[in-house]
Specification:
Layout (H helix, E strand, L loop, with lengths): L1 H14 L28 E4 L6 E6 L5 E6 L9 E7 L8 E6 L3 E8 L2 E10 L8
The structure holds calcium ion (CA) (2 copies).
Length: 131
Amino acid sequence: MRTLIFALALFLAFTGQAFAAGDCSTGAQRSVHSDFDGDGLGDSLWRNVETGKVLIWFYDFEGNVLTREIVGVAFVGLNWTIMEKADYNGDCMADIFWQHRDGTVIVWLMDGTEVNTAVNLGFVHEKWQLQ
Ligand SMILES: [Ca+2]
Ligand SMILES: [Ca+2]
């Protein structure tokens, strides 16, 4: 995993994107692991296991679902699995870590429901599992 983070840091450095941790300390219920729109509230990431569609639910401060929005790309092949969501580039918005059945890993750096950048992090042997 350290190699993957290093590869992502190199990619972001060469493309001029920020990698330093942002100030995500505002917001009543800050959740950098699942906050896709940076409003300080955790959001829910859903995946349709038949179509591959990815959907995010955004909430208000009372826990009500405000909107349900499809993530940028309409379909992602079912050979891809969402392994983790976390803020990899320090912009206070959660990103999506994917792994293909063949071991290829990518990170979608997200801007809300839009995929800002897809970073290919290479291949991880099947004996290594994200924890
Ligand atoms: Ca949110
Ligand atoms: Ca991010």
